[in-house]
Every structure is written in C-alpha cells, then in structure tokens.
Amino acid sequence: MKYVFITGASSGIGRISAITLAKNGFQVLAGVRKEEDAQNLKDENLNITPIFIDVTNQNSINEAFNRISEIVGDKGLYGLVNNAGIAVAGPLEFLPIDRLRQQLEINVIGQIAVTQKMLPLIRKGQGRIVNISSIAGFTAFPFKGAYAASKFAIEGLSDSLRRELRPWGIPVSIIEPGVIKTPIWQKSINLVEDIVAEMPPEAEKYYGVVYRNLLERTLKRVERSGIAPEQVAKAILIALTSKKPKTRYLIGKDAHFLSKILTKLPDKIVDSFICKRVGLNKCEFEGT
C-alpha cells in the first residue's frame, strides 16, 4: 500500500490528479480546505482520504501531519505532490504588496513549509517529491510577474532540494505545464477585480485597456487551446511510478515551444515578441 499526499486537491489539477492516482492503486491523502470538497472527493473514490490543510498556517500543517502520520503508520509517505496555488495578476508598478505576499505565501512558503513537515514521513517511506511549476517558471509575461516570481522560486527551490536530498535517494521532480483548462484562471479573473479596486487611478490610466484585453484573451486562449488537466495528472503519475523519474516534465505544445525557442533567444527579441503580442508597444503609449 503506497500513500501519496497532494495539496490543493479541491479542484483543477489537484482534484484530477487525486482521482487519477487513486484509480492507479495509490492511497491518496487529498489536501482540502472545505467540507464540501472533502465529501466530493470521498464520493469520487474510496481510495481518497481528505486531509484538511491550509498551507499558509503552520498549525494547520502540523495538524495535517499528525493526521497523516496516524494513517500511514510505519509505511510513511511514498509521495508528496505540492500543488496548492493561486494566480495573482496585475502590473507590478501598482500591485498591492499584500497581494504579492499572498502569492508568495501560498505558492512558495507554503510549499516549503509542507515539504519540511512531511520529509520525515517521506524518508520513512523511501518516497519522492513532485512540485507543480508552470511555463511561468521560466518565461515571465506582463501582468503575471507575481505568479511568475512564485514559479521561478519553485524551480530554484526544487533544484536545490533535489541536490540536497540526493544522498538519500529521494527524487524531486518538477511538472511544467502550459496553459491548462482549470478553474485557476477564472479564479484569477475574479481576484483581479478585488486587486484593481486596491490600486490607484494611475493603474487604470497606464495599463487598464491592455491589462483587461490581455485577461480576456487569456480566458479565450484557455478555452480554445488549453490542455486538459488529465495530461498533468498523467505526468504526475509517471513521476511517482518511474524507476528513474525525470527532473522536469514539460506538458503541452506551448510549454515545449517556450522552453525550446524563447528561452534560447536574446532577451530583447523575446521582449519585443511578447510586448507586441499583448499590446504593450511603445507607440501605443506615447503621451500617457
């Protein structure tokens, strides 16, 4: 019997991955925050046990650890999947600092806090770690700087952690999906309205039109060409079951394109390409 703990299992990648892993023989400990989400997962598969956790609250992490320890016993954890996350969007010039802190607290600090707490169980179970990153972990687009910062951080932390744990044979893999059809994008759009209300009028003056157009185009792109979360779940399953797991798994055509093309070009060429694509051309802002 192999136990895997996955954070952020209420929806999107986390939910689909929990179900996929359960169907493939794992005993899944699914991190959730609401009773409704817990019940939905229990109804989905008997191999799923909801674990209530808030990755930004150390007491909550400690309680989750105690509960998981009771369940896994001497078997320990075979896998930890750090998936919990949000996407904060907004121009960095005016982005409220508390929103930046929120982004990093959930996507970065929370992931490390959970990893630190669960590592004794991973050592006991001779397990492995899978961290969910993104194409935003190696390519930063306008208005997504906070989100990109969190994913760049996950990339660096994962590399360091993988090397630190190498003597004990604990693999650390990074999943790098492109645009995926998950609720995180709609949640991000909903969050935008709150963030915009916190920014000064100058934010609307300088960035408003481009900002809103980009968000609309992002949603359309997600609907038109976003990959199914099942593809990410499959990569997580492979990372957890492979005898020699890769350090990175690129998921989606856009991820492969950005990794192989844009990351190899000079910065100025990439800047020009991206800015033209999103409407941030200098000529359009003359006089503002």
Description:
By secondary structure, the chain is of the alpha/beta class. It is 55% helix and 12% strand. It has a single domain (3-257), classed as 3-Layer(aba) Sandwich (Rossmann fold). It has helices at 12-23, 35-44, 58-72, 97-124, 145-165, 184-198, 201-225, 229-241, 253-260, 267-278, and strands spanning 3-6, 27-32, 48-52, 79-82, 128-132, 172-177, 248-251. It has a seven-stranded parallel sheet with strand order 3-2-1-4-5-6-7, with helices on both faces. Helix 1 (12-23) links the parallel strand 1 and strand 2. The longest helix is centred in the middle third of the chain and has 28 residues, at 97-124.
Structural shape: globular
- Rg result: 20 Å
- What is the terminal separation in angstroms? 63 Å
- Per DSSP E runs of 2 or more residues, the count of β-strands stands at 7
Class in CATH? Answer: Alpha Beta
The CATH superfamily is identified as NAD(P)-binding Rossmann-like Domain
The CATH topology label is Rossmann fold
Mean of residue pLDDT values: 90
Order of helices and strands: EHEHEHEHEHEHHHEHH
Low-confidence stretches: none
- Tell me the fraction of residues in β-strands, as a range: 5-15%
CATH architecture: 3-Layer(aba) Sandwich
Number of domains: 1
Number of helices: 10
Spatial ordering of strands, largest sheet: 3-2-1-4-5-6-7
Helix content: 55-70%
By secondary-structure content and strand pairing, the structural class works out as alpha/beta
Largest sheet: 7 strands, parallel
